[in-house]
Amino acid sequence: MKAKVYVTLRKSVLDPQGKAVQHALETLGFGRSVKDVRIGKYIELELTGTDPAKAGEEVRVMCEKLLANTVIEDYRYEIVEPAREAAKAAR
């Protein structure tokens, strides 16, 4: 089983890295295509459990304690079961 975790700065927090990327995209001619850029983190965790509900709770605690700074960051995650992942790969 796998967990996919996405961590981003809260909308109220200035994202200087995102602004730098946005400016670079504008100078490359994408100014009309891109309204805003926010930079974040993507974390994949390979989990040993088989119960998706328990895995989700454990990942939530991991995010709260270590993976995200909940004062300035939001996070979301998804638990991917092996059968579902294999079906996606087969497409």
Kindly summarize this structure in a few lines.
With 91 residues, the protein is α+β, with helices and mostly antiparallel strands. It has a single domain (2-90), classed as Mth169, Chain: A (2-Layer Sandwich), CATH 3.30.1280. It has helices spanning 16-30, 52-67, 82-90, and strands at 2-9, 40-46, 73-80.
Please write out the topology.
Elements lengths: L1 E8 L6 H15 L9 E7 L5 H16 L5 E8 L1 H9 L1
Antiparallel strand pairs: 1-2, 1-3
Could you walk me through the main structural features you see in this protein, from its secondary elements to its overall organization?
The protein has 91 residues and is an alpha+beta fold. The protein has one domain: 2-Layer Sandwich (Mth169, Chain: A), CATH 3.30.1280.10. 44% of the residues lie in helices and 25% in strands. It has helices at residues 16-30, 52-67, 82-90; strands spanning 2-9, 40-46, 73-80. A three-stranded antiparallel sheet has the order 2-1-3. The protein starts with a strand and ends with a helix. The mean pLDDT is 93.
